[in-house]
Structure formats: C-alpha cells, structure tokens
Amino acid sequence: MSEHHLRIVPAGSARASVLFVPPLFEEANRTRRTLVLAMRALAAEGLAALLPDLPGQNESLVPLVEVDLARWRAALAETASKVSGPLIIASLRGGALIDHAAPAAAWWRLAPASGASLLRTLLRARVSADREAGIASSLASLEAEGAKAPLLLAGNLLSPAMIAGLGAAEVQAAEPLRSVALGADGIAGTPLWLRAEPGEDPDMAQAIAADIIAWSRSCGII
Amino acid sequence: MTDTPATAVDATLRALLGDVLGLGEARAAALTADSGLFGELPEFDSMAVATVLTEMEDRLGILIDDDEVDGEIFETYGNLLAFSVRKVAG
C-alpha cells in the first residue's frame, strides 16, 4: 500500500533533495507544522523537501499494530531509493532510529532520542491514565503484558515486536553524519516535540533549514 | 550530582515545565510553591505527566521508579520541586 507524502519543491530544478524522517507517534504531530516551514525554507533555497507518512502514522491506512521498526526502516529505504539526484536524510528524535538503512549522500539528525526513552514515556502515560481510572499498573507489569500481546499506549496500539524493538533501539552509525542538539551550540529553538499543546517556532524552522544547507555544502552535495 | 543546589534544580524544573506545557517564560517564572499543576493546568494531562517524568530523568540525571510517583507530587509546583531536590540529593 503506498503512503502519502508531502513534497515541497523549488520553482526551478532542485539542487538536491532533503528527506525528513519525522519524530515517532504523537511527537510527529507536535513538530509537523514547524517541519513544513523548514521544508518551505529549503525549497526557497533550491532544495526539494519530502516528508513521508510512515506506515501506521499520520494519514497511513496501515493499522499501527501491524508495524514495527524494521518495516519503518524498509519503507524509508524504499522512499529514499525513488528520489533522483543527491539526497540528504534529516531525522528528528525517534526518526533517527530508523533512518540508517536508506541510501543517502549525507545524514542530519536533530535531538536524536533513544527508543528506550520514547517507550518509557509511552508506558508512563498509560500508567498515569490507568491511575486516574483507578487501575493499578506499573512499567514492569505493562512491559510483561506487551511482550505477549499488543498494548495500547497513549492511543497507539503497539505490537510485541514494536515494543521490543523500541526498547532496544539506539541511533545507528551513518556517514557522513551531523548530529545536532537544541541550544546555543546547535539549533536555537524550543523542543516542540515535548509540548502538550500544538506550537510553532518559525525561527527554529529557519535555523533547521540553514543548518541542513550548511551541512550539505560542507559535504560537497550542493 | 549530590551538590547540585536547589536553585539549579528549580531553574531546570521551571524550564522543563515551560517546554512541556508551553507556559512561556513569564508563566514558568511565576510558578510558586502553591501553584497547582495536575488537575489545575489544562495542559497537564497524563501524557504531559509522562513527558515531564522522562525529561526530569534526562535533565536532572536521576531515575524515577513507579512507586515513587503518586498523585501528590504533581499536585503543586512546591511538591514537585521538593521531590526533585530530594531525588537529586540521592
């Protein structure tokens, strides 16, 4: 089943393409608006920008419970292989856990997150919601449950394969890679992916685009 | 981390709540010990509680067990700060 993707292209021919790998689960929604602003900024500089839906995410028709990290990695590799011309992969947070199998000329990662940390937050949200409903659960009891059957975590029905994969997932080596954090030495901006309510940071979008362009230049891609 | 002063924990915690709840600097700075959190701030839902806990671990360099988390620590900013200072002190 083919997935939708958002593509923003420059007026003329593109000098290169940037494939954005969004954060995972709810974090993707919280950052999408600002990512789209970054894509527009890239297009204004002559780069094509692509934001794919991962299977089971956003507008995908695939049930999330049928998906695991291997499937996301394969889907991204397939998307990347269809891009003509030089390609830079730009991943945010958990996106950095699934971006290394895709063929690219360079990688750029913002605030990469470990799978264990993402999973811990999802499990905690369930524990917290359970407590409000008067149900006693714990990270350990949920993990044991999730090893045997799909588990509903903060609105995401995750398979045992996805839960196990997330718990063990670390960012993998890619070459050449620029990994940046938020802050004075990296991208100035707000961690929108943590935000309980939707937000937007246009300055951060500009900073993301500028940093990707500078990195592409230093790699000799543009 | 045993010598981290309470003021540093306070600053980290305000910034963190600002990031997660989108409070903005002024509202984050205006939090007092009596300021209500869970049940009082509409943004503070169960997902926000989970995000705050994981970020507290990352930014304060602590580990938080399930059984340490009860409704009480999220009742007020003062409770959350006292819990954090206690955890950082080990």
From TrEMBL, chain A:
InterPro entries: AB_hydrolase_fold. This is Exosortase A system-associated hydrolase 2. It comes from Sphingopyxis flava.
Automatic annotation (TrEMBL), chain B:
SUPFAM superfamilies: ACP-like. This is Phosphopantetheine attachment site. Pfam families: PP-binding. Signal peptide: none annotated. It comes from the Bacteria. InterPro entries: ACP-like_sf, PP-bd_ACP. It comes from Sphingopyxis flava. Residues 7-88 form the Carrier domain.
